[in-house]
Amino acid sequence: MYIRSVFWISYVILIFAVIVFCCGLSRLGWGLIGVLFILLIFSRYFNLTNKNR
């Protein structure tokens, strides 16, 4: 359930970042991509910590 919600949030952020890049606001787009990568890293870390318990 948690993994699926993170996947959908990252998917929406990715689409929004593409739209922002098309509008020419590259700085905001890079910021969104950075947030997306941070979310993915945290979700991976969360999955690993849950498996170790």
Written description of the protein model:
The protein has 53 residues and is mainly α. The protein has one domain. Helices cover 92% and strands 0% of the residues. Helix 1 runs antiparallel to helix 2. It is elongated and about 45 Å long. Keywords: Membrane, Transmembrane, Transmembrane helix. The chain crosses the membrane at residues 6-23, 28-46.
**How far is it from the N-terminal to the C-terminal residue, by CA?**
18 Å
Helical percentage: over 70%
Strand count, sense and barrel status of the largest sheet are: none
Total count of strands: 0
Strand percentage? under 5%
Whole-number mean pLDDT = 74
User: What is the count of distinct domains?
Assistant: 1
Shape label = elongated
Low-confidence stretches: none
Radius of gyration: 13 Å
What is the SS-derived class? mainly alpha
Annotation field: number of helices: 2
Order of helices and strands: HH
Keywords: Membrane, Transmembrane, Transmembrane helix
Transmembrane segments: 6-23, 28-46
Protein traits:
92% helix
Q: What's the structural blueprint in terms of helices and strands?
A:
Elements: H1 2-23, H2 26-52
Helix pairs in contact: 1-2
Keywords: Membrane, Transmembrane, Transmembrane helix
Transmembrane segments: 6-23, 28-46
Summarize the structure.
This protein has 53 residues and is mostly helical.
